[in-house]
Automatic annotation (TrEMBL):
This is Winged helix DNA-binding domain-containing protein. The lineage of its organism: Bacteria, Bacillati, Actinomycetota, Actinomycetes, Kitasatosporales. It comes from the Bacteria. InterPro entries: AlkZ-like.
Length: 399
């Protein structure tokens, strides 16, 4: 790390986070599309996360549900699809080609080979049969518009075929062709999640044909995705980039070179300095927001899950209470760029929260957090939200 590199301290990293992730009151967006563009991707594994992440950054007093449902299911300006690390996200529609080419193609090739191999081991029909069923299912989905797996199976009964997976292993199971094939088609960018069967918190989705998009060169797509992400999340380390994208380190380095990324040194959060990167021209200082800010962010929020190295905004001693055993973060309370506690919704709808830092945060900060809790409760109304991945503090607060 050369002496000429600019040093970005923790305070400036947190200022960038606040401003670029629209977490200050003055920076809130007017549409879900603007929120998604500001974050590049919204975690979609837990359906409620999408709406709550938008709501935390939306100025509209009507709340995020009607506008986000309109964007997802009517205008289709937002698309729920597989993305980085073979995880479901919600992306701006204009990014579907970029995401598919940069991250989906390699994952899809492995997923198809795995499905064909598993079926062969089970004595199930071969790849040609699978391709025939796939084409029939896609045609049926085109006729129906949107459909559940069960509805598709009425059109194409071969989707109900079952085969034994990992026979003789401790994790042996029985899979239906529809379960594995529809997931594969999602990874391949041929289908996307449609409107859920229930409310906006439901995880039972219909399927729909993916919107048409141009084919892109994978290297070009990786360059574009990394440029967009680093613009809103820089500075970030090579380890952050490799983790967030799920790419090989050689792909990360090639894309960094392609965008002319500038190297800087950054505060890692617990007394150590590491090398990081920003997009070209973004190494200059960024001033802190004019007013201190509080936020209640949902489980798997894209800001909380944005970096692999999190010590600069989340103290290591808070992790046991705020993460589940698989590394999924639960609902978090933020004050001025740091995670300071957790929150939950009780059965009666009350939003409850707890500050976990030993030194506390002060009366003014607690008043700001309370105001955000009231704002969140008003937007949820009669809805009840339980995170899909529950954490110790969330479970305790929820009672």
């Amino acid at each position: 790390m050369g002496e000429s590199m600019r040093y970005v301290d923790g305070a400036e990293r947190r200022a960038r986070l606040a401003l670029r992730h629209r977490l200050t009151a003055a920076g809130r967006a007017t549409t879900p599309e603007a929120v998604a563009a500001s974050l590049v991707a919204l975690h979609g594994t837990d359906p409620a996360t999408v709406y709550l992440a938008v709501g935390a950054r939306l100025a509209d007093p009507a709340g995020p549900v009607p506008a986000t449902e309109r964007a997802l299911y009517e205008d289709r300006t937002l698309v729920r699809m597989h993305g980085m690390r073979d995880t479901v996200f919600v992306f701006p529609a204009e990014l579907t080609a970029v995401v598919h080419a940069s991250t989906g193609l390699a994952v899809a090739a492995r997923a198809r080979a795995s499905l064909v191999a598993d079926m062969a081991k089970a004595g199930a029909p071969d790849a040609a049969w699978l391709k025939e069923v796939e084409e029939s299912a896609l045609a049926a989905l085109g006729r129906l518009g949107q459909a559940t797996a069960a509805e598709l199976a009425r059109e194409e009964p071969r989707l109900r075929e079952r085969f034994v997976y990992a026979a003789g292993k401790s994790y042996e199971g029985v899979h239906t062709v529809s379960t594995r094939l529809l997931r594969l088609l999602g990874v391949e960018g041929k289908v996307v999640r449609g409107r859920p069967l229930g409310s906006w918190t439901s995880s039972q989705f219909r399927w729909a044909l993916a919107p048409a998009h141009p084919e892109m060169d994978p290297a070009q797509a990786q360059t574009e995705l990394l440029r967009r992400w680093l613009t809103v999340c820089g500075p970030a380390t090579e380890a952050d980039l490799k983790w967030w994208t799920g790419w090989k380190v050689t792909d990360v380095r090639r894309a960094l070179k392609a965008i002319g990324a500038q190297a800087v040194t950054v505060d890692g959060g617990t007394g150590y300095v590491v090398e990081g990167y920003v997009v070209e021209g973004d190494a200059g200082p960024v001033a802190a927001p004019e007013e201190p800010w509080a936020a209640l962010l949902p489980a798997l929020d894209p800001t909380a899950m944005g970096w692999q190295g999190r010590d600069w905004y989340l103290a290591p001693e808070l992790r046991p209470a705020l993460f589940d055993r698989s590394g999924n973060i639960g609902p978090t309370v933020w004050w001025n760029g740091r995670v300071v506690g957790g929150w939950a919704q009780r059965a009666d709808g009350e939003i409850v929260w707890r500050i976990l830092t030993g030194e506390g945060i002060g009366r003014d900060a607690e008043a700001a957090v309370a105001a955000e809790a009231e704002r969140l409760g008003g937007r949820l109304g009669e809805a009840r939200v339980t995170p899909r991945f529950r954490t110790p503090v969330e479970k305790e607060l929820a009672g």
